[in-house]
Amino acid sequence: MAELRAHRIAEQMKKELGEILSRKIKDPRVGFVTVTDVEVTGDLQQAKVYISVLGDEKKKQDTLLGLSKAKGFIRSEIGNRIRLRKTPEITFEFDEALEQGNRIETILRDLNK
User: Fold this and answer.
1) Which CATH superfamily is domain 2-112 in?
2) What is the tens place of the pLDDT at every residue in 13-23?
3) Which end of the chain is more exposed for a tag (fewer CB within 10 A), N or C?
4) Alpha helix segments (H runs only) across the chain
């Protein structure tokens, strides 16, 4: 039962984070960010947000720095939008799955040539 609730909250957070990052964050370091997944622990105390960023490695690091500086604001916005007793602590991580998928697709395409 707790896993179902955690999954529902993760999906709601993913939706709200997408809107917050696109409309509310004014930091120039935060460029085009896509929230690919959110994992919330069963006790709803921590949330791991997976993001994808367009750009080179420097742009990715700048975006992560900007998001870490805005973490308090983002958490308060989530708290205002989703009614929870305690808003989960947010950590941002890069989603490497997209890059790995592209790399595998390139390898498979080269094999077929």
Assistant:
1) K homology (KH) domain (3.30.300.20)
2) 999 999 998 88
3) C
4) 2-23, 57-69, 71-81, 97-112
Residue 44 zone, left/alpha/beta (φ > 0; ψ -120 to 50; rest): left
- pTM confidence score: 0.83
Contact at 8 Å (CB) between 29 and 87?
Answer: no
Residues 10/38, Cβ–Cβ less than 8 Å: yes
User: Would you tell me how many other CB atoms lie within 10 Å of the CB of residue 33?
Assistant: 22
Range 104-108 contact pairs with CB under 8 angstroms and sequence separation of 24 or more: none
Per DSSP, 88 falls in state P
Q: How far apart are CA 4 and CA 1, in angstroms?
A: 5
DSSP reduced 3-state for 59:
helix
Domain boundaries, the chain: 2-112
